């Protein structure tokens, strides 16, 4: 989806060069590596996978809004509907109440307020359920450059998927998805103090073993000044 779809001028977004049309997938069980290509015809312009600076994108979207439109650190507490006498027969107005006492009336509400969404509950949607997987992602920053090839790498194993891709000469985006429920229950046993929600206990050891697998061209950070890791 292009930035123009959101009415954002391209000059506001710092986009990197398009990604290569192929990527590597390594099986951690046997070490086998395969090369795949993204769908689409390369010479037709259909392949347009590319990273975008999230901060720059959000700032560009914010610039298009009237001053004072955005409210930060404002938690939505409840939603109600009302129809005034003058508006009888017209669509209901949504009344949003925030935790600081602010009341906002709106004709359109878009719910993107997280896994425990107040909007979803108001719409009568089911509560979220545990999927049995945990994920962690981050942006590794190397001020002096990482020296990594400009290609996407993915690593697969039983119940595990990890990937890394350089988005600039100094930044590498990475993520790891891991099946955690079974392992957590096995370790916890009858001890209620050990919770499956402590996913870091299972993810981070695998992260260390996986993301440095066969990555000799990626220079690990030598100190906090040389490189740093940002988790989201």
Automatic annotation (TrEMBL):
The keyword Oxidoreductase applies. Pfam families: FAD_binding_3 (PF01494). Gene3D superfamilies: FAD/NAD(P)-binding domain. Residues 57-130 form the FAD-binding domain. Keywords: Monooxygenase, Oxidoreductase. GO terms for molecular function: FAD binding; monooxygenase activity. SUPFAM superfamilies: FAD/NAD(P)-binding domain. Belongs to the 3-hydroxybenzoate 6-hydroxylase family. This is FAD-binding domain-containing protein. It comes from Aegilops tauschii.
């Amino acid at each position: 989806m292009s930035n123009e779809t959101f009415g954002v001028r391209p000059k506001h977004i710092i986009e990197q060069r398009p990604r290569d049309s192929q990527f590597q997938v390594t099986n951690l069980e046997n070490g086998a590596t395969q090369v795949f290509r993204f769908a689409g015809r390369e010479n037709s312009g259909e392949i347009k996978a590319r990273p975008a600076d999230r901060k720059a994108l959000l700032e560009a979207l914010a610039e298009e809004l009237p001053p004072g439109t955005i409210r930060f650190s404002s938690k939505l507490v409840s939603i109600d509907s009302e129809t005034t006498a003058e508006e009888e027969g017209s669509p209901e107005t949504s009344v949003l109440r925030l935790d600081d006492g602010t009341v906002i009336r709106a004709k359109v509400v878009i719910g993107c307020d997280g896994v425990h969404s107040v909007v979803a509950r108001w719409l009568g949607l089911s509560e979220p359920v545990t999927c049995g997987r945990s994920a962690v992602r981050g942006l590794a920053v190397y001020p002096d450059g990482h020296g990594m090839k400009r290609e996407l790498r993915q690593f697969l194993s039983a119940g595990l998927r990890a990937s890394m891709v350089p988005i600039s000469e100094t930044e590498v985006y990475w993520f790891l998805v891991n099946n955690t429920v079974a392992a957590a229950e096995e370790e916890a046993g009858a001890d209620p103090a050990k919770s499956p929600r402590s996913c870091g206990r299972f993810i981070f050891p695998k992260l260390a073993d996986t993301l440095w697998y066969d990555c000799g061209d990626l220079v690990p950070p030598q100190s906090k000044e040389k490189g740093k890791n940002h988790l989201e």
